[in-house]
Amino acid sequence: MNSKELITNEVDNLTEQVKDSLKNVKRFAVAEAWKILQVVTASVIQIIEKIGTDISSPEKKELALKLLSDFYDKVFVAVDIPIIPNILEPIIHKYVKAFLMILVGSSIDALVATFRQTGIFLKKQLDDNNYADQVVTVSYVPWKEQNEFYTNIWRI
């Protein structure tokens, strides 16, 4: 099994656990669907980052979007939209999913950045650093000279 298959299996197990825990819920409000999707997004990102060490970042995001789209299809059979009559909701369901998937795509980027900044994920190291031999020299005016400069300007 390659890493993508292992990741898919892990997310399928997660999906089944969520479905089982929500088996008595027949309809979801959009807000609740979004909250659940955010928690699952964070879990999927962590699974992919842990197992998919041989997968590039764009492939990881593509895989995450596919897995989350599948999760949505399996768990959120009916999403309740407050102002839409129930008879029209199945027609609009695919548009709600498309909208939420756009938000999920942005959330993935934000969560990965947050996880890296907080130390949940290690920051990526650049193997080919073309600037390793270059040194940036910063010159500054010592505080005493800055203070004298600004004092003299105010006297003018």
Topology:
Blueprint: H1 3-21, E1 28-29, H2 30-51, H3 57-75, E2 79-80, H4 89-118, H5 143-155
Parallel strand pairs: 1-2
Helix pairs in contact: 1-2, 1-3, 2-3, 2-4, 3-4
Describe the 3D structure:
The protein has 156 residues and is mostly helical. Helices cover 66% and strands 3% of the residues. The protein has five helices and two strands, in the order H-E-H-H-E-H-H. The chain has a two-stranded parallel sheet with strand order 1-2. The radius of gyration is 25 Å and the shape is globular.
In short:
By secondary structure, the chain is an all-alpha fold. It is 66% helix and 3% strand.
Output the structural class.
Answer: mainly alpha
Helix count, DSSP H or I runs of 4 or more residues: 5
Roughly how many Å apart are the termini? 77 Å
Strand proportion? under 5%
Rg: 25 Å
Query: How many domain regions?
Result: 1
Helix content: 55-70%
Number of strands: 2
Largest sheet: 2 strands, parallel
Spell the H/E element sequence: HEHHEHH
| Shape verdict | globular
Low-pLDDT runs of 5+ residues are 136-141
- Order of strands, widest sheet: 1-2
Mean pLDDT: 80
List its traits.
5 helices; two-stranded parallel sheet; single chain; 156 residues; globular; 2 strands; mainly alpha
